[in-house]
Prior knowledge:
203 residues
Amino acid sequence: VNGVTPAIAVAPGAAALTPVGGVVPPGPVPLVSGAGQSFVWTYLVSGAGPVTFTVSATGGDFCATYTASATASMSAQTPAAPVASIAMLPVDTNIGSPFLVTLTVTNTGDATLSGFTLDGLRVGGTGGVTFAGGPEPSPPVSLAGGSSITFTWTYGGASLGTVDFTATVSGSDANTGTPVTTGPVAVAGTVNAKAVLVAGATM
């Protein structure tokens, strides 16, 4: 077959892609009997949504012109993008009183966050706390796009002063393997002395 020329059409989904250069090789190319030829187009994903490619190759000989075509579909996704928020409940506690620290992680991208890694809470400040348990639930292996998970730790106030907690979440984009991280996020609170009620009477 002489003069094999490739072509591509993208619909639906053209708005989600940005072409990078042209087809390689550009054609036309000769194709001897029994041989094959690969043509490569490169795109940059710039949006999200379903994408369908229709590719074709046209060539001919002394007798006729021939065209072969095929279609393929994919889903263009925005990258995995974890966002974390942390809270201390209540933010002011007493010596001997239990309190909770919660960490909510949301994957705001479309792609799955794989290799989910939770850098356990780091505790600082001038006050003291006792660890009672957590995180609950255990960290997952991955976090799907658009989903959230909340982890909870339990502590108790141990000595007077300020306390702060920081956490970092990391992983990678399941489509590209690109590392992604959120944090450290932090929250601060206070450990106080228990209120003591003193009553007196005079005559």
